[in-house]
Amino acid sequence: xxxxxxxxxxxxxxxxxxxxxxxxxxxxHPLLRDASLHLLKAGGKRIRPVFVLxxxxxxxxxxxxxxxxxVPLELIHMASLVHDDVIDDANTRRGQLTVRSKWDNRIAxxxxxxxxxxxxxxxxxxxxxxxxxxxxxxxxEMSIGEMExxxxxxxxxxxxxxxxxxxxxxxxxxLAISCQLGAMAADAPEKTARLLYRFGYFAGMAFxxxxxxxxxxxTEKEIGKPxxxxxxxxxxxxxxxxxxxxxxxxxxxxxxxxxxxxxxxxTDIHRFLEMIRGSQGIARAEALASLYIDxxxxxxxxxxxxxxxKDLTGIAHFFGNRSY
Amino acid sequence: xxxxxxxxxxxxxxxxxxxxxxxxxxxxHPLLRDASLHLLKAGGKRIRPVFVLxxxxxxxxxxxxxxxxxVPLELIHMASLVHDDVIDDANTRRGQLTVRSKWDNRIAxxxxxxxxxxxxxxxxxxxxxxxxxxxxxxxxEMSIGEMExxxxxxxxxxxxxxxxxxxxxxxxxxLAISCQLGAMAADAPEKTARLLYRFGYFAGMAFxxxxxxxxxxxTEKEIGKPxxxxxxxxxxxxxxxxxxxxxxxxxxxxxxxxxxxxxxxxTDIHRFLEMIRGSQGIARAEALASLYIDxxxxxxxxxxxxxxxKDLTGIAHFFGNRSY
Lengths: 324, 324
Fold this sequence. Notes:
Two copies of one chain form a homodimer.
Chain A lengths: L2 H22 L5 H12 L5 H10 L6 H26 L3 E2 L2 E2 L1 H4 L2 H19 L5 H23 L8 H26 L4 H28 L2 H4 L5 H5 L4 H7 L5 H13 L7 H8 L3 H20 L6 H15 L3
Antiparallel strand pairs in A: 1-2
């Protein structure tokens, strides 16, 4: 199944969320509106709203209520990207100029602050404090994750566990609560919401591992940017951590990493990419992604047999095989 | 009355809030904890928690509940300062190194993100969605205010209204909701909470006008930094806007502002300060601050005669005369 087929089925509701997203950032401040709109129009797969909608199908599906969760979760994702771009000195994302490059870092910082605040102010329209709590706690974890990322830049002694905790905070957590809060906003049973959280978590972990694989193995055409962007920023991902465990590879790889770090990432990384691609790190990371997908699908077994369950299964397989 | 006398009466509860503030940022991440603690230890007058406590006295005062408002409001203030310092390239605040100068801008950005998120996650422990809504909406307004500040840097055609709206968002709003949410967390009547909001708003406007006056008229000893820091950053405050309205002064003042802007604030501002100090802008701004204090005190008349009302009156007078 293709992700687009699924989107076709949800099209009406996704369009409605898209309109609501635009409305949510239609602020009476030219610079802030332009920067936010620029960010929104840069697109994205809107996976978080899709997870919210599908989570909602396990309860009393009411788009008007569910919107108040779907919109904030996508806004939080957008805001985290714009702050990420400040850290990464990124000039483009998805082929578009970033806010920090089109305007400047200060504008990017405050645009992110504004969108974070807006997200929380929208979700508080729901009279359900538990939902507010879960969303703000996730924001706390995400911000710790951002700091972790900086702390582990070019850190060759990091463990698999360090990496997993980092991608949980960076990616999996927001996807997990997207499924969970969709269910909660639709008053689904607590157990259902909890299972959906776990599904989103496992699917999110697989998604990020594959994303990190793509950055190392994809072509520029496939990933929309030159391969190896992660290492240029100092971000050591799981295939690299695995490769560092290979005694025959480790000394040369360490040397190469020291060299790249010394150049602050502004150097030819051809040799580094070759080493990783020739290592067991790739196959081991692929196996890890598959393991997470299996876990995600296993969780779904415990949920009622509705169409949304098939759709989530489809998304999980899609995450497991993604090569775009 | 002196502010310290008031603090003596509230000392036990303020100490309890202070401990809770420390606990709130005790995160299992060395860099984040150090940066947050550094920020906390840099001090501040804790006016927001004091407003919360006094607001709470108008209802069923319960420190355990009120804490969940007092701590987040001080955290929001701290987080906004750390993001401010990034914008202002500030190296010191209250005589201490800023986070951005002790670490770097990226650390400062994420420390701010973390503290904002933490604030919201603490307030959501209260089962009162209206409180969550008011706090997150204030954050939205504050972030718009920050962008407004950038937009109006060295903008000599701004109106008094532009300025007032900006300081509302920058200062008065958070003080207003401190009083209001203290009352709400103590289940005070709705009308009481609304009046307290208005008190905090007027007092906050007076506070900021006097703060802006101090930056122009105070000595380095009084204000802990060289006078004229605002204009060096491009921040045109109300005495300057008033002075620009004087035909005999306007041309020379505009010329001086153009020169300071061209040097990006890194120039001798002696002549600028002399012009403003010799203008009607000072007296007019003082009158404006007094007007706001009168309004704040008038609002208090409508509230029951309890000790907290006397304390708020004392604070209002203190704001009206501050010269520290």
